[in-house]
Amino acid sequence: MENFWVRLIFEFVLADLSTICFGILLNIPRRAYHYAGAIGGASWAFYWAVYYQLHLGLALSNLLAAIMIGVLSMAAARWQKMPMIIFNVPALVPLVPGGQAYKMVRSFVLGSNGTALVYLYQVLVIAGAITLGFGLGDLINRLLFSEHHLRNR
Amino acid sequence: MKVESKDKKNLAITACLLAGRLLIENGSNMERVNDTMRRMALSAQLQNFEAFTTMTAIVASAEHLPNAQVIDIHQRKLNLNKVAAVNSLSRQFAAREIDVETLYAKLQKVDQQPQQTSDFVQCVAAGVLSWALTIVYTGNVHDSLFAAVIALVSYQVYLTLGKHSKARFVNEFCASLVIALLTVGFVRLHWANDVNDIIIGCVMPLVPGVPLTNAARDLMSGDLISGTSRAVEATLTAIAIGCAIVFVLRYV
After folding, report:
1. H helices, E strands: number in chain A
2. Do B132 and A83 touch (CB under 8 A)?
3. What is the pLDDT of residues B152-188, one digit of tens each?
């Protein structure tokens, strides 16, 4: 169990670091680095716990992580009075199905179409789950925060 | 209507258009663009403000003035700092802290603003990003160091080509080509172990995150035209990256 927490913190730190770096590539304002990094790290650590430890499956894990990104980004956007996009785009980076997309293309080229279709399915599931998760996160935000507050995002 | 107030109204429409252009250019989602422009028009006391926003141009009119104004958008730079700056200016304008003239002057200043981080810092950030994500995805600590170096070099290639070439997707293609060639080279030299682990980490800085997220959000909020065009942009970028890597893996 102790090993689990060490791993969780390890995953958090690395995801936090990568989120901040992607934020630098996108030129987000300097004072947003820490918040975006924390959101990215927390959602990836959550995804890691749900997918690799609880084995809840690809779709649900991505959906929950995307909802988490959406809700946390809106909270940070309202609190810091900055646009939401500054927080949710960098935070999404660890979840992007880059690895699966790469393996899909590779399998197609090397002629193993069966493996490629498996990865294609994974890419579609992840992309769909993240899109739906952002939509649901938006809905939750609208329910949590009144219209008046949303106007100030 | 007095000439003076008409001038002021024209200036207000121009400021709205400039704000809209800055937001679209730097990767904001359409709902925010429309929302900001409408809010600015409201604060400038423009009646009947209407705007038609697409990824490549904005048309706006107000007050039933005879001519609608158009602004052309021909580049996308993804500088989210400018989105934040426009956002805070719009907030100040709505709170009546600045008037239309100051707003327009400040928006022009935001337009001229240089990048806040130097190219070298960006390349280092790309390297660290690839290093961290290679470990997160694969747990391969030894190869992650090579991933960092390769990502640093390829991002420099990406930035340099982006400055010199007007063609889209070519810089992503060339940067991925560099990634794949260097990776295969390092593995052939037996310095690094796994081609797949390195490439997965290295392509992450090039992933079209902003168009992807915006495509999803635009489609969700009903802006079908910009949603689909952004989805196409993201897909083409992904294909450019994929093609370059496949090319090397197949023939080298």
Report:
1. 7, 0
2. no
3. 999 999 999 988 877 778 889 999 999 999 999 999 9
Contacts of A15 in chain B (CB under 8 A): 132, 136
The β-bridge partners of B170 are none
Mutation target vs B (from A25, A28, A140; most B CBs, 10 A cutoff): A25
Could you give the CA distance from residue B193 to residue B226 in angstroms, rounded to a whole number?
43
Domain boundaries, chain B: 3-112, 119-251
Q: What is the pTM of this model?
A: 0.86
- According to DSSP, the residues that pair with B6 across neighbouring strands are none
Say whether A26 and B91 touch across the interface (CB within 8 A).
no
Mutate which: A12, A13, A18, A95, vs B, most B CBs within 10 A: A18
Residue B1: predicted pLDDT? 46
Instruction: Identify all chain A residues contacting B116, using CB atoms and an 8 Å cutoff.
Output: 27, 29-30
Q: What is the pLDDT of residue A149?
A: 52
Residues of A in contact with B27 (CB under 8 A): 26, 85, 89
Q: Cβ contact (<8 Å) for A99 and B220?
A: no
**Which residues in chain A land under pLDDT 70?**
1, 146-153
Bridge partner list, B57: B72
Region for residue A52 given its phi and psi (left: phi exceeds 0; alpha: psi -120 to 50; beta: otherwise): alpha
Of the pLDDT bands very low, low, confident and very high (cuts 50, 70, 90), residue B126 is very high
**What backbone phi and psi angles, to 5 degrees, belong to B57?**
-165, 155
Kindly state the average pLDDT of the residues B96-121. 87
Domain locations in chain A as residue ranges? 2-150
Compute the distance between CA of residue A14 and CA of residue A16 in angstroms, rounded to an integer: 5
The pLDDT assigned to A148 comes to 54
Torsion of CA B251, B182, B122, B55, to 10 degrees: 0
What pLDDT digit, counting tens, does each position of B130-150 carry? 999 999 888 888 899 999 999
Q: How many CA atoms lie within 13 A of A79 on its CB side?
A: 11
Q: What is the pLDDT of residue A151?
A: 52
